[in-house]
Amino acid sequence: MTGLNRRRRLAAVAVIALAAVTGSACSSSTDGPADGGAYLVWDPYPQFADDSEWVALLKKCGTSAGVTVERTGYDTTDLTNKALLAAQQGNSPDVLIVDNPVISTLAEAGALTTTDDNKLDVSAMEKNLLGAGQSDGKTYGVPIGANTLALYYNKDLLTAAGVDPATVTDWTSLTAALTKVKAKGKKGITFSAIGTEEGSFQFLPWFWGSGAQLTSLDSPQAVSALTLWTDWLKQGHAPNSVINNTQTTSWQEFATGDYAFAENGTWQLANAEKLPFAYGTIPVPASAGGPAPAPTGGEFVSIPVQKNTGRYQTSQQLVACLTSADNLLTTDTTLSYVAPVAAVQERQATADPKLKVWVEAVRAAKGRTGDNLGTKYPKISESLWTAVQAALSGGKSPQEALRAAQTAASTR
To answer: How far is the C-alpha of 189 from the C-alpha of 261, rounded, in Å?
Structure first.
């Protein structure tokens, strides 16, 4: 890509960023990477203070590379905007850690180097997780870890209803379990179907678990997935509140002890240990059985384009250090992530048997921007969550809602 074309792409993409941040908000970006021994790292973990294990690891990796690491943590959305603007201005950080769907946006803008360019070794990474950072056959970073979705269950409610969670392996057996729970006067399942990316995120395991593809939102398989959810509401297996539920409020409903199941993620594991009842987890089942592909969350570590290409070698050392097996184990334990490397996943599951279900779910997971969707995904996702909202509210049938979604996704 020529410098002129790259600047044009960045200028086009940065229009979105400019709408979200002001000039004064970019003050930290305009300083650029320091010369000499200082290397800038930007991450989406503002919750970690300077005395945290995460920052200690960054500094340790800097020391190993013979440089000083200057780290700044941003909110996820703010980080995306700042990364785009910094790339446009030619003063990107040396190492950038971003939410995996953002990789395709930055790559399309010409803001990231590829692993062929920067010589990062990704051979040990699980291919399904690596896919979220790939576009047009090129890889733009290294996954630092992944989270995904599964079904939490209330052991006491299932026991009282005569349901063995091990028998819940497909949609038919799950609906049968919900029916038994309802017959005992309790509630079946709660999830998030809000009209945002969270709603799409939670619907995707059912969508993909039906065999549907994001390039055909109105396929018979897709209709079957949305019909499953609408039927659950009609039959009283799921509450009407799911239409407005975030993943947090959905979890709060489950925590009352009134629901047998809740679809939620690895990030709730710490909260799960505080529940006033015994819980377990199973994978979200596919329509015909087995774990459904759930979407992956988690970040990629990437190396942005630099004017001084001589910095790439040290940046590569920093990324290699952050994503080494031992460091991944520490970092992913801190973040409640499943590691992107099979050997480390096994170590996690051995250390904490409760993670076995999550390792299985991550191994079956898919990147939302995978299948070479890249920056098309946000448009598709918006059409999808709009369809889910329309069907669950009774405004349209599942088939009508998804037909409208496919038309919208094709024209956006």
So the answer is: 5
Instruction: Mention every residue, 6+ apart, whose C-beta is less than 8 A from residue 52.
Output: none
Neighbours of 137 (CB within 10 A): 7
* DSSP per position, 45-107: -TTS-TTSHHHHHHHHHHHHHTSEEEEEE--HHHHHHHHHHHHHHT---SEEEEETTHHHHHH
Sign (positive or negative) of CA dihedral 230, 235, 238, 240: positive
DSSP character at residue 242: G
In whole angstroms, what is the distance from residue 174 CA to residue 310 CA? 56
Place of tokens 């590691």: 339
The token pair at 228 is 């499953």
Q: What is the pLDDT of residues 16-26, one digit of tens each?
A: 333 333 232 33
- Determine the pLDDT at residue 16: 35
**pLDDT for residue 362:** 96
Enter the tokens of residue 182: 């309802």
pTM of the model: 0.85
CA gap 34, 291 in Å, rounded: 47
For 262-376, where are the alpha helices, taking DSSP H only?
269-272, 312-322, 325-335, 342-351, 356-364
DSSP assigned state of 114: -
Cβ pair 170, 288 in contact under 8 A: yes
